Amino acid sequence: MHTLHIKNMVCARCVNTVREELRQAGLTVQSISLGEAIVEGTINHDTIRARLEAQGFELLENHTARLVEQVKTVVIQLVHSDALETMTGRVSEYIARTVGKDYEYVSHLFSSVEAMTIERYVILQKIERVKELLMYDELTLSEIAYRLGYSSTAHVSAQFKEVVGMSPTAFKALRRKPRTALDRVGK
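Structure (tokenized):
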């Protein structure tokens, strides 16, 4: 069995697409989750890399890239599953526990590779989630703030304005500003 680490897997459709591409490459997929596939069969890295890249994914082959991608996946899952609403403790503790590494080490590595802090990446992901929830028009800003672990609507509003350049109310009224693909946030 072989473990493949794959960048840009951010949703269930990504998992299904990668599963199919690996199957088409002649591999038996034992298990697959965001960012990782466990497969059996003869691996031709060039073929797998080409198949994945054609679909917008990237085969990660070094430890640093895998760890940074793992952190991104943890953040995306945390923010977009609304787990922040019930989370106890700090996001940094959750990330360290989930990736099984010291947060200081992970934070330094992430910053050196991505040219931004993990904290900034979390903020950018949260703002993308705010945009999504505003577009759905089902929750008040206060409910959105609570869901995403903000201390107040003023806090989410200030962060939103800093990142997007307009207030959540102005964004909601505009409704035409396209969202950023989750794997493109921060780029």
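Residues 64-118 form one domain. Strands lie at 2-7, 28-33, 36-40, 58-60.
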